[in-house]
Amino acid sequence: MELAAYGVTRQLRGAAVIDIGTGDGRLALGAAAAGAIQVVAVDPDPVALSAGRARSRELGAANVSFRLGAAQDLPVAAGRFDLAILSWTL
Amino acid sequence: MVDALQEAARALRPGGILIDARPDSRTLAKVEHAARVVGTVLTQAHECRDDRAADQAVTTAKRERLFRRVRAGRFWYRVPFTDRVALDAYLRDHLRFQHRVCWGPSARRRRAEWRADPLVLVRAVRFEVLERR
C-alpha cells in the first residue's frame, strides 16, 4: 500500500532495489512482491534482520537478501540500484 | 543525515529513484473512534528538531545536485488498537509521541460511552520521490 502511495509501482517492475533501514523488511518484501528483480535490505539491527529473513522464507522471496549495515556506509557496490527506499530512516 | 543521502546516491545508478518517507510532525497525529476524530497527539520536541534536520539534509542534497525532486506527497498511516488501554501502552513506550492524548470529549463521556471500544491512531507520513542526477 505504501509503495503504491509513492507512485513507483511501475518503476519497481524488473528493478534492482535497496531498502535502507529496512527494519523487518516490510517494504523490501513489498518491493519484491511488486516485481523487483532483486532487493537488498540493509539495517544495523541484527534482530530486525532475523525477523525479515524469517518472513522472507515464509513468503518464498528468494530475490531478497538481508545485510547488516548502516545507512552512512552501505555494504553495496556503487551504481548498482535502480531504486532506493529511505523509509523512516533519516 | 546528509551522509546517508550521499550513500544512497552512490548506490543508485544515474537516473535512479530515491524515496524518502518520514512521519510528518507538521501535522498532528489524530485518534479516531468510530471513524470520528476524538483526540490529537503531539510530537516530542526533540523529534520535531530531528525532522527539521532531516528536511535540511534533503535540501542540502538537492542543492549539492545529488538529486532532483520528481514529486512529493503525504498519506495517512493507521495504527489500530483494541481499546484505550492498548493505545495508552503504545504511547507510553513510543519515543516519538508525547505520552498523552489531548482528548476532545470529556473523561466522563469517554468512560460512559466508549471505554472498551477500538481506537485508531492516524499518523501523517510525508514523502518525496527524488531522481539521482
**Number of distinct beta strands of chain A:** 4
Q: What is the terminal-to-terminal distance of chain A? A: 21 Å
Q: Roughly what percent helix of chain A?
A: 25-40%
Strand order of the largest sheet of chain A: 3-2-1-4
Overall mean pLDDT of chain A stands at 95
Q: Helix coverage percent of residues of chain B?
A: 25-40%
β-strand amount of chain A: 25-35%
Question: Can you summarize the main beta sheet of chain A?
Answer: 4 strands, parallel
Structural class of chain A: alpha/beta
Shape of chain A: globular
- Pair of chains with the largest interface and how many residues each contributes: A-B, 26 and 29 residues
Structure in words:
The complex is a heterodimer of chains A (90) and B (133). Chain A has 90 residues and is of the alpha/beta class. Chain A has helices spanning 2-6, 9-12, 26-33, 46-59, and strands at 16-20, 38-43, 64-68, 81-87. Chain A has a 4-stranded parallel sheet with strand order 3-2-1-4, with helices on one face. Chain A starts with a helix and ends with a strand. Chain B is α+β, with helices and mostly antiparallel strands and 133 residues long. Chain B is 35% helix and 41% strand. Chain B has 4 helices and 6 strands; from the N terminus they run H-E-E-E-H-E-H-E-H-E. Chain B has helices at 2-11, 45-63, 84-93, 107-114; strands spanning 12-23, 29-33, 36-41, 67-81, 102-103, 119-132. Classes of the chains: A alpha/beta (90), B alpha+beta (133).
